[in-house]
Amino acid sequence: MFGIPTHSIAIPATGEHFSCKDHEALLAAMVKLGRRGIPVGCLNGGCGVCKVRVLKGSVVATGPISRAHVSQEEADANITLACRTAPTSDLELEILGKMKKSFLAQCSKP
Fold first, then answer.
1. Structural domains in the chain plus CATH codes
2. Which residues of 29-45 are buried (b: 16+ CB within 10 A; e: fewer)?
3. Does the reported pTM lie above 0.90?
4. 53 near 20, Cβ under 8 Å?
5. Residues 6+ apart with CB under 8 A from 70
6. For each of the chain's 110 residues, which pLDDT tens digit applies?
7. What is the CA angle 106-11-29, rounded to 5?
């Protein structure tokens, strides 16, 4: 009768929106829905390319977040990794991470 709450995730800078279940990793929800907006790397906290700042709303960690990718000062400023973070309310995000090198450029090199 009562399902898992679903939250609206917005990225104002790009106009992207997607839905994410309560306590589901943000990046996993975005990828599952075929959406874009947050850079996707390893999906498990190892690369740091999915770094985001939570502008509005509340989140919970779904796993450990390496200090190599998010310092304590950044965490205190609502910065986290989307692959290791789940919403507990509707969210607005700012994208901070980016791919270090273009995957397609690497494939085209002899």
1. 6-108 (3.10.20.30)
2. bbbeeeeebbbbbeeeb
3. no
4. no
5. 48, 51, 79, 80, 81
6. 467 889 999 999 989 899 999 989 999 998 887 877 888 888 888 889 999 999 999 999 999 988 999 999 999 999 999 999 999 999 999 999 875 544 444 444 44
7. 70
